[in-house]
Design goal:
Layout: E1 20-25, H1 28-39, E2 44-45, E3 54-58, E4 61-67, E5 81-84, H2 88-98, E6 101-108, E7 113-119, E8 125-131
Parallel strand pairs: 1-4, 5-8
Antiparallel strand pairs: 2-3, 3-4, 6-7, 7-8
């Protein structure tokens, strides 16, 4: 699948869509296995075969887990990534039932969108973004 690119006028930089979302985890393999179970997909590991970096494929996005440490992931250094969903309330409830905890929202962004944030059992905060309602 080809991803559209965006080149701001005069910048010379061309970005495609998001390819990888990497989060820092105390136990990357355990985090990846949990998400693989919830999403019904497989876990992949770095080429060395060690559990240094593990990931799951979510659509066209690689959701990767890297070992956390105070140098590479100080508090507040990771962004919150919002995943597009068809029904925020339904997906939120499924994730809460699977072991996530409430973090923020749900909030009506406008008349067309609802967002919320949840925290997985390993401390990773993710956002859900879907149609209002």
């Amino acid at each position: 699948m080809s991803r559209p690119t965006h080149t701001p006028s005069g910048s010379g930089i061309s970005f495609g869509g998001v390819r990888t979302v990497m989060v820092f985890a105390d136990d990357p393999e355990r985090s990846a296995r949990w998400w693989a179970s919830v999403l019904g997909t497989e876990v992949h590991f770095d080429a060395a075969g060690a559990s240094v970096y593990a990931w799951v494929d979510v659509g066209d996005i690689e959701l990767g887990f890297h070992p956390a440490d105070p140098v590479n992931n100080p508090p507040g250094a990771s962004p919150v990534v919002y995943w597009s969903v068809d029904n925020v309330a339904a997906v939120r409830q499924r994730l809460l039932a699977a072991g996530c905890t409430h973090h923020r929202g749900p909030l009506a962004v406008d008349d067309t969108r609802t967002i919320c944030q949840i925290k997985d059992p390993f401390g990773t905060v993710i956002g859900l973004d879907g149609p209002a309602g």
